[in-house]
Amino acid sequence: MTYRKMSLTRLLLTRIKKSRIFRRIFVGILFLSVAGFLGGLGYFGYLVLNAPSVETLKDYRPNTITRVYSDKNEIIDTFFMEDRRIISVQDVPPVVINAFIASEDARFFHHKGLDLFSISRAFLKNLVAREIVQGGSTITQQVAKSIYLSPERTIIRKIKEAILAYKIDRNMNKWEILELYLNHIYLGHGAYGIEAAAQVYFGKTTRELKLPEAALLAGLPKAPSKYSPYSNLERARQRQDYVLTRMVEDGYITDGDRNRSLKTPIKLIAAAPKEKVAPYFTENVRRYVIEKYGSDALYREGLEIYTTLNVEMQKAAVAAVERGLQEVEARVKYEAGSLQGALLCMDVKTGEIKAMVGGRDYKKSEFNRTTQARRRPGSAFKPFIYTAAFDKGLTPATVIVDEPIEYEDRKRNRVWEPQNFDRKFHGPTTLRTALVHSRNVVTIKLLEEIGLGYAIDYAGNMGISSPLTRDLTLALGTSALTLQEMVRGFGVLANQGKRVEPFFIKKIVDRTGHILEENIPKEEQVIDPRIAYLTTNVLKDVVQEGTGERVKVIGRPVAGKTGTTDDFRDAWFIGFNPSIVTGVWVGFDDERNMAHNETGGRVAAPIWLYFMEQALAGQPVEYFPVPDGVTFVRIDPKTGYLAGFGQRDAIFEGFLEGTEPARHAPGSQDTLHPEP
User: Who contacts 334 (Cβ-Cβ below 8 Å, separation ≥6)?
Assistant: First the structure.
């Protein structure tokens, strides 16, 4: 009995103890549940209170594409972080809107940002299909995710997404939300928004999209890479079929519409990026905008940049440079593609850059040889010295003796004996003849006569901004200059003594239509128009009978000057008509010598000709206007004196009134038989 009583007692005590444990466990579980619920509720409240503000979403400015336009408003380049082109929802055809709503959010116009019905339906369809065939996120949720949240897949992110979707729905109407969505959604191949996608895939605007195209694009948001028609057209068309089927189910189209759409071939444009028409030019634009306005302005703010570039002239320039270089490479047996060239064309009246070729292949070398390369211009520099001399009282008929000369070079402990290109001396030579035939010795003596400092200052006034050699070798073009400087300087001659600054941007407009800058051409009279004409008149003969004779077949008034360094490292031709001035440079980037006799007239001038023939095609023939105060008289081309009556080799030479010669050439017929 005692044993049994003790056993029962122990049993009772054990049960009491267990019941206490169970109670404690239950209470603990209950406490943790309540605490978890309250904590979750508190955290949810925290997420609600700390969710990003959506009140300013109506003023949201997504990253947009910056467009660069030609002088005829053709798009020549774009800059962007995201290829996005904003379009108003009012401009989106109903067929496009219906396709996206049917595909992504059938109850868009009926829910409050979240759609439990759609979530449940998607769950069941995915369960039956054993794969994710339909999503449950509303369009509003997708807007919230793409604008405010990271792409991570977590419960917390989904909660944030739901909160934001609800807030967005309360602060915006459905059409505003839809506009955000259609402009912001990523649709593959770098295209953000429906307008960019229409351009990328079909080369169309959104307004031009038809049902088959709209359905294909509407199938992309789910997985742009997976359903890309470029990567897998069959899979893309299966997704297109899904969208069309959803449109039938929702009453947007008929079965007949669906079937016809599925039978319609999809005509995609080439996926590869188009070759840029003027990469060196637009790189100048890019650098300028970044330097002045910052990279965000260029890549995010959707600027409209209107430039000076003429597309047809640019194409002609590219073709001319390549043609000319290939001809030289074939003639001299250079390695194909090894020789480099550059071309720059400027409007002489405005300074607008109309064409720019900075090299043969921008993809291989971004170095711009029109603006960044400093090379010696050789004899192409001589017109600046002759113009300075004319302004100091000399004339094209002034005679300087072409004869051997020598100068002591104390720095190098040697004697400098300059030579002409032909290694000959020609005796008394007029300045016209000296410039036309590019006589070195006469030019050196001329520079010595007018003064080195005077010539340097004069060239600077005409637009040469690089440091110039402060010795007599300046006459031979030994100072390294850019092609742009040379074109600017020659432009003064073409523009009757007025200097204009080269520029490439006409206007920049921001996305709101505000003009950030507008460049109005400015010109400054830097030399006497009569002096400019005298040099121009001489340079016309460079083309007709001098070192630039190869280009005279152009058959219209032009003027220009060749340039060749004495080691054949650089070949130049700068020429102009009354409207445009074009400069061409040819050489090797490593500055090795070209073959002997590969001169500016032989190498660079043909490129200039190929370009100018196309640039001036269809344009009226223009003549260089003769300014008031310039007179012409017949002179003897050997002596510079007045020609005799009936002298067959006499030429008409231009002079400033009052500077023409007063005496006749010795031994001329007029000397023996003066005119009555």
Answer: 328
- Coil, strand or helix: which one is 499? strand
Residue type, 240: Q
Q: What is the per-residue pLDDT for 534?
A: 98
CA distances from 120 to 116, 137, 595 (A): 6, 11, 80
Rounded to the nearest angstrom, the gap between the alpha carbon of residue 443 and the centroid of all alpha carbons in its chain is: 40
Where residue 214 sits, what CATH number does that domain have? 1.10.3810.10
Per the listing, tokens 């460079």 go with 542
**Single residue among 590, 615, 640 that ends a domain in this structure:** 615
Distance, in Å, from the CA atom of 534 to the CA atom of 655, rounded to the nearest integer, reads 7
Give percent of the chain with pLDDT exceeding 70: 84
Considering only CA atoms, which of 491, 492, 466 is closest in space to residue 479? 466
Q: Are 87 and 183 in contact (CB under 8 A)?
A: yes
Strand order in the sheet with 515-518: 75-79, 66-69, 304-307, 505-509, 515-518
Extended strands (E) in 277-325: 304-307
Is residue 436 in a domain?
Answer: yes
Higher pLDDT pick, 220 / 274: 220
> Which tokens is 583 given?
């400069």
Is it the case that residue 151 has pLDDT exceeding 70? no
- Name the pTM for this structure: 0.79
Q: Name residue 408's beta-bridge partners.
A: 415
Same domain, residue pair 145 and 230: yes
**48: Cβ contacts below 8 Å, ≥ 6 apart:** 163
82: helix, coil or strand? coil
CA end-to-end distance (rounded Å), the chain: 175
Do 94 and 173 fall within a single domain?
A: yes
Which among 658, 630, 620 is positioned nearest to 497, based on CA atoms? Answer: 630
From residue 511, how far is each of 85, 95, 193, 546 by CA, in Å? 11, 28, 16, 53
Q: d(Cα 371, Cα 354) in Å, to the nearest integer?
A: 14
Q: Which tens digits make up the pLDDT trace of 378-420?
A: 999 999 999 999 999 999 999 999 999 999 877 778 899 999 9
Which residue from 220, 193, 219 is spatially nearest to 206, judged by alpha carbons?
Answer: 193
Q: Which domain holds residue 136?
A: 82-263
Question: How far is 504 from 308, CA to CA, in rounded Å?
Answer: 5
Beta bridge partners of 341: 586
Give the catalytic positions in this structure. 104, 379
DSSP letter (8 states) at residue 132: -
- Please give the Cα distance from 312 to 92 (Å, whole number): 34
Torsion, Cα of 409, 415, 421, 425 (10° steps): 120
Among 587, 615, 643, the domain boundary falls at 615
**Dihedral Cα 348, 353, 358, 362, nearest 10 deg:** -160
Rounded CA separation 496/463 (Å): 14
CA distance linking residue 224 with residue 186, whole number of Å? 7
CB 502 within 8 A of CB 488: yes
Task: Please state, in angstroms and rounded to a whole number, the distance separating the CA atoms of residues 189 and 201.
Answer: 9
500, β-bridge pairs: 523
pLDDT band at 21 (very low <50, low <70, confident <90, very high): low
- Overall domain count for the chain: 3
Closest alpha carbon to 308 in 356, 276, 341, 370: 356
Domain contains 190:
yes
- Which CATH number characterizes residue 358's domain? 3.40.710.10
Number of separate helices (H) and strands (E) present in the chain: 21, 20
Residue 675 scores a pLDDT above 90 = no
Burial (CB count within 10 angstroms: exposed 0-12, middle 13-18, buried 19+), residue 53:
exposed
15 within domain boundaries:
no
Q: In terms of domains, do 354 and 422 share one?
A: yes
